[in-house]
């Protein structure tokens, strides 16, 4: 199998840093600074959401290519201590698929105390691990949940696991992993159930955000004309709820918020396509194989695993990372003529 068939994009090392100011933190040519690190720790997943994974799952990453727990902790330490990262999020694939997740979290909590450690998860099995993860030092979780209708859930995720997800969300709240935020990708088939999902989240005391689907599905079926835009969702929610526009918590937050029925509850919309927030992007990503990926949509990645295993020091790794960020793309370019989706799908990048 070729690397392209496995969904592994071009890996370049090193990137040119010509013109880069001599500063420690992660700056790019467009004046943006990355403070938010997202670490994918696996390509494996317990679900097969149609907008993300192929039915058969992603090709397995050979064990020797996957970062170990200690390697992940080391790179997180480099990001925080040398590059100015202020928040770390574990994602995937499904982070709960890694048995050593608690060890990764505990290692980071010990080495970068005070830095918020979050996780984005589908919550399958979280019921049994939420307390342990909180004890290990996890700060909060965001959970993917697109519908509270069991048949719809099974169809969209290709797995009948809704009860486990709902139990996982409740366990996260009980363990104090808050604020618990819920991510729902907007799909034509679940749009009608959006008010029920919002009502469920209001009742459970969790913060719902709807997300516009991006062209990051492994099956390459995304089409602009089929995407449910934020405006259409607002019209549907507006039939049942009174919504008052609030805006963003901070300029680089993907979610715009609306107050529901006068507050204090809110609903968010992450309109990555129709109201792109690339100009204020503050993200940098590590893939599960240890490459730096500066933009979701850019297939050009910088390898850190190879140099790390060949004995590179922390400052050498930081230098490679700074070069990757300096070459970050201006934005996703979905609306541009000739746009082509990246080789990696969302689950293979770490959403
Ligand atoms: N375009 C774009 N969308 C992103 C990016 N990161 C996350 N998203 C989208 O935003 C959704 C929610 O992401 P989360 O992992 O919950 O993170 P977040 O919204 O940044 O987290 P909070 O700090 O809790 O608000 C993802 O499912 C993606 O669809 C990004 O860098 N670019
Ligand atoms: C790839 S998942 C990984 C973490 C975990 N498995 C989960 O589902 O939360 C991260 C986020 O990406 C989102 N996502 C996946 N495919 C997407 C797409 N095509 N467009 C927008 N968001 C997507 C999911 O809804 C989820 O919130
Ligand atoms: S969105 Fe998350 S849960 Fe769904 S298939 Fe992708 S990685 Fe798995
Ligand atoms: S698409 Fe790229 S530039 Fe835009 S917000 Fe996402 S990671 Fe940042």
Automatic annotation (TrEMBL):
A GO biological process this protein is involved in? Mo-molybdopterin cofactor biosynthetic process
EC supergroup of this enzyme: lyase
Identify the residues that bind [4Fe-4S] cluster 1: 45, 49, 52
Q: What does the record's cofactor remark say about binding?
A: Binds 2 [4Fe-4S] clusters. Binds 1 [4Fe-4S] cluster coordinated with 3 cysteines and an exchangeable S-adenosyl-L-methionine and 1 [4Fe-4S] cluster coordinated with 3 cysteines and the GTP-derived substrate.
* Cofactor dependency: [4Fe-4S] cluster
Query: Which EC numbers does the record give?
Result: 4.1.99.22
Q: What is this protein called in UniProt?
A: GTP 3',8-cyclase
Q: Supply the source organism for this entry.
A: Rhodococcus koreensis
Q: What is this organism's lineage?
A: Bacteria, Bacillati, Actinomycetota, Actinomycetes, Mycobacteriales
């Amino acid at each position: 199998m070729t690397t392209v068939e496995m969904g592994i994009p071009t890996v370049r090392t090193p990137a040119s840093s010509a013109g880069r100011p001599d500063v420690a933190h992660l700056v790019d040519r467009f004046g943006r600074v990355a403070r938010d690190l997202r670490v994918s720790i696996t390509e494996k997943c317990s679900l097969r959401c149609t907008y993300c994974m192929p039915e058969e799952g992603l090709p397995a990453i050979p064990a020797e290519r996957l970062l170990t727990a200690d390697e992940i902790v080391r790179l997180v330490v480099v990001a925080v201590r040398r590059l100015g990262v202020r928040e770390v999020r574990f994602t995937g694939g499904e982070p709960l698929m890694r048995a050593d997740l608690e060890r990764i979290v505990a290692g980071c909590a010990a080495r970068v105390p005070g830095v918020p450690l979050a996780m984005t998860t589908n919550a399958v099995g979280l019921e049994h691990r939420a307390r342990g993860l909180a004890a290990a030092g996890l700060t909060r979780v965001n959970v993917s949940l697109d519908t509270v209708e069991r048949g719809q859930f099974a169809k969209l995720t290709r797995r009948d696991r809704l009860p486990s997800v709902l139990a996982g969300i409740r366990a996260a709240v009980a363990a104090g992993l808050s604020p618990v935020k819920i991510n729902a990708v907007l799909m034509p088939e679940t749009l009608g159930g959006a008010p029920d999902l919002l009502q469920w989240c209001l009742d459970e005391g969790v913060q719902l955000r709807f997300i516009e689907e991006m062209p990051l599905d492994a099956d390459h079926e995304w089409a602009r004309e089929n995407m449910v835009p934020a405006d259409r969702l607002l019209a549907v929610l507006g039939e049942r709820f009174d919504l008052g526009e609030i805006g963003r918590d901070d300029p680089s937050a993907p979610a715009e918020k609306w107050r529901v029925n006068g507050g204090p509850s809110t609903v968010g919309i992450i309109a990555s396509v129709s109201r792109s927030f690339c100009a204020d992007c503050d993200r940098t990503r590590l893939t599960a194989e240890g490459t730096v990926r500066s933009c979701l949509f850019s297939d050009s990645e910088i390898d850190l695993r190879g140099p790390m295993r060949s004995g590179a020091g922390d400052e050498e790794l930081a230098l490679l990372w700074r070069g990757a960020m300096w070459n970050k793309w201006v934005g996703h370019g979905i609306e541009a003529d000739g746009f082509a989706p990246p080789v990696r799908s969302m689950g293979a990048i770490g959403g």
